[in-house]
Amino acid sequence: MNFLHEDRLFPADIDTRAIAKRLYASIQHLPILSPHGHTDARWFAEDLAFPNPTELFILPDHYVHRMLYSQGISLEDIGLDKDATRDPQEVWRLFAAHYYLFRGTPTQMWLDHAFDELFGMTERLSAKNADLYYEAISTKLASAEFRPRALFDRFHIEVLTTTNSPLEALEHHAAIRASTWKARILPTFRPDSVVDPEFAGFRENIARLGEMTGEDTSHWQGYLRSLEQTRQRFKDLGCTATDHGHPTAGTADLNSSAAESLYGKVVAKEATAMEQELFRAQMLTEMARMSLNDGLTMQIHPGSFRNHNPFVYRRLGRDAGADIPTATDYVHALQPLLNRYGNEPSLTIILFTLDESAYSRELAPMAGHYPALRLGPPWWFFDSPEGMSRFRECTTETAGFYNTVGFNDDTRAFLSIPGRHDMARRMDCGFLGRLVAEHRLDEDEAQELAVDLTYNLARKAYKL
Known about the structure:
- There is one protein chain.
- The protein has a 4-stranded parallel beta sheet, with helices on one face. It has a 3-stranded parallel beta sheet with strand order 1-2-3.
- Helix 14 (256-267) packs across helix 15 (273-294) and helix 15 runs parallel beside helix 17.
- It folds into 2 domains: 14-49 and 145-461, TIM Barrel (Alpha-Beta Barrel), CATH 3.20.20.140; 50-144, uronate isomerase, domain 2, chain A (Orthogonal Bundle).
- The two termini are 38 Å apart.
- 51% of the residues lie in helices and 6% in strands.
- It is of the alpha/beta class and 464 residues long.
- The protein is globular and about 65 Å long.
- The longest helix is centred in the middle third of the chain and has 22 residues, at 273-294.
């Protein structure tokens, strides 16, 4: 007996729910496209068994440990501290004893989906059944059916992308492509480490990029050529998109001489904070130019105050769940880039945000006008039922559905992918069901939209 309700997330109104369920039934089993995520290609290249439930569900997922940490549970107790060794089953017991903290959150829904659908658990996780869960999951993880490649196939994933630094050799992607297993696992070009002067080791990273490409990155033109060459290396391994996590959405359009002078200051560590921001802004425009030339879809997700907690950053490094949203200006910030490239129909720039206030005021009107712009789905803090509903309500009236790009899961937690996509499909069908019930759409239109939102829009935007 499963503990997840079959009508979860559907509208409470009976008639609207019936429409939503009909729509959902037609798209429930469509393949998963995961065009923006952070799983590890090594898992699929080596195809080794996942070690234990703790390393699978807890350690890679900052949604999980940020909640535990917020309740005073130490990094050592969670098993994250690099200098501490914890029994993974003890960490699991601690997690289970505090599972109640996740009530009402998307994290609980994703986890419950995996526990129920994948591992056949019949009751919700708690301190009482922690060991039962741990042993049952561990037993299944040891079987061939739960190896990474088998799960990839079981999840009906058509495309899975990773996120990769230009300094990575991408050997695991190469190994997958050389193997007899023909799954599409693609890298995504994430150049933050070599375009952000405030990134740790920036100058060393620039030098390393030059060594890898045979270009002189001490000079502006050599630096640009090295980035173009690296993008092509990524493309050769199937890459279709870039990804840019800048502090702001600022862009610039400097002439070549000014850009070269600014780069010289940045490399010499003589740039002020304002000049460093100007350099990041110029590099977004340079990346748009490169995307117009090589066809890679460009993703921009600004507005995160990264590594806000220096204590956690020192202990765990980047991307450890201490990144906080900030207000973001898109209208003025993106104008230099859009003045240059916004009217190019062959260029696709997907905008993401952590600032919901910008949905209807800035993002939807911009995407509803510029041919190059598309809106990414709610992500991170907003990849939740309420966030999805607010996104549709705030953007559809101005940008429509077809200036959006479907759903992506943005996850490091591989087993959460089916649950995240299932949540998005249910929420979109609920939203479309309401439009049908209010006679704002005919059901045949809603049916086509359900397929587009689930599959076609992501396939087109990411050139999959």
